[in-house]
Design brief:
Strand order of the largest sheet of chain A: 6-5-7
Strand content of chain A: 5-15%
Order of helices and strands of chain B: EEHEEHHHHEH
Distance between the termini of chain A: 22 Å
CATH architecture of the largest domain in chain B: Up-down Bundle
Helix content of chain A: 40-55%
Oligomer: heterodimer
CATH class of the largest domain in chain B: Mainly Alpha
Distance between the termini of chain B: 22 Å
Largest sheet of chain A: 3 strands, antiparallel
Structural class of chain A: alpha+beta
Shape of chain A: elongated
């Protein structure tokens, strides 16, 4: 079976278009249903790799340093997103701890790890070992990555608690905010462009 | 952008004997076997995933997830999501109760944010997915661009409802002062989380191209 690299199909209505190279910031939209077909590459592979490594650093800080510290009459308590997920694992509601830990910590971690892996090899136009599985995995993980929801949740929790106790934002909150921005930049839909930017091991790099 | 204007001038994959891979978006040649639209017609030469003209069992799966979510939405709203003790006295709060608390204490903005995420978003998702499933089952040609836009909205806003789960998690991990004050999650949050996950699965199973399929497709 053949592939037509110069064609693109709208995923929402099946309309077929010719693929045209776009400049940075440009976007091709389907004229039938209005969906975004593809975008001009905002970053090249090396820039994207740098952002992914930055995201890894932000992820580490966000998950090691407390996001919130509270103080009630001299008693202190602090938490990270990971500890927050663990705190759900009590009583009847315990099973919800698993998806919460997944969307808040595990999925972003896997996304960053897989991105760094494929981007490292993509620098020289190569496909990393396990490239196909990694790309499939990135596609499956993307809708389940909820760093921005966690960020809003942290802010809501700050406001909720501030009427009862003293609340201090920790370093983790800033790292989570940074991670949120970095994830939208590196782990978006346009990761699939790596399919066309790399060549399979068998073929000579273009 | 209107239906009818461009829908006739832009060819569709099926008409050209093409098929788009769900996984890697490669445009592949459709071998053209006369089989149902959700039966695999080969494997993608790029990523090796099965090629389907439409997602398998799309409407049935999306409907099943949606109905399950609707059922669980009842206990999610009726049962308490959190239990707080403060200086010996304890009280349970539901999702709606939490919104009312914020509203009466004057935090209108935050009450609105939680209302939108916990009640607005799920209800919009139920309404839109229900509408899409019914209209696609009937192969309706009504408002196709608008219905596609509705689907994109559902895809985009879907996960924000997880907000309440995150808030309960953070609060119950922080407020752990034993005799003085403690918060614990309650089973309502499990149902609520399940609703969010099920509605997301419903939207993912739905194949938006079915909105544009006529009888022949």
């Amino acid at each position: 079976m053949t592939i037509y690299p110069d064609l693109v199909i709208c995923e929402h209505c099946d309309a077929v278009y010719q693929h045209h190279a776009l400049a940075k910031g440009q976007m091709a939209a389907c004229t039938v249903c209005g969906s975004v077909l593809y975008q001009g590459h905002a970053f090249n592979v090396r820039q994207r790799l740098a952002l992914a490594v930055t995201a890894a650093v932000a992820f580490l800080i966000a998950n090691i340093c407390p996001v919130i510290t509270i103080n009630l009459h001299g008693l202190e308590s602090h938490t990270t997103m990971w500890q927050a997920a663990i705190a759900l694992a009590q009583g009847d509601a315990a099973p919800i701890a698993v998806p919460t830990a997944a969307v808040a910590v595990l999925v972003p971690f896997l996304q960053i790890a897989l991105l760094i892996w494929v981007l490292w090899f993509a620098q020289s136009g190569r496909r990393a070992p396990g490239f196909t599985s990694a790309m499939k995995m990135l596609g499956i993980l993307r809708p389940w990555s909820m760093v921005e929801v966690c960020m809003l949740g942290i802010l809501v929790a700050v406001i909720k608690l501030s009427s009862l106790v003293q609340v201090y934002p920790g370093a983790g909150i800033w790292a989570t905010a940074g991670l949120m921005i970095l994830m939208t930049l590196v782990a978006g839909r346009d990761v699939s462009q790596l399919w066309s930017l790399t060549r399979p091991a068998a073929a000579a790099p273009a | 952008m209107r239906d009818g204007a461009n829908a006739r001038t832009v060819p569709r994959a099926g008409e050209l004997g093409l098929i788009g891979c769900h996984v890697c978006n490669a445009v592949c040649a459709d071998a053209g076997h006369a089989v149902a639209h959700d039966v695999p017609v080969g494997v993608c030469p790029r990523c090796g995933h099965h090629l389907h003209r439409r997602r398998p069992d799309s409407l049935r799966r999306a409907a099943a997830y949606l109905i399950a979510a609707l059922i669980l939405y009842v206990p999610a709203n009726l049962l308490p999501v959190m239990y707080t003790t403060f200086l010996g006295s304890g009280f349970a709060s539901t999702i709606f109760g939490g919104i009312i608390d914020f509203w009466t204490s004057g935090s209108y903005g935050i009450a609105l944010v939680i209302f939108i995420a916990s009640i607005g978003v799920p209800c919009v998702k139920f309404a839109i997915m229900g509408l899409l499933l019914v209209t696609c089952q009937r192969k309706s040609t009504w408002a196709r661009p608008e219905r596609t836009r509705m689907y994109r909205l559902v895809e985009r806003i879907g996960y924000w409802s997880f907000l309440d789960v995150v808030v309960v998690a953070i609060v119950s991990s922080l407020v752990e002062f034993h005799q003085l004050s403690e918060t614990q999650p309650r089973v309502g949050i499990l149902f609520f989380g399940a609703v969010v996950i099920l509605t997301m699965l419903s939207a993912m199973s739905f194949d938006a191209r079915l909105i544009w399929d006529d009888e022949e497709a």
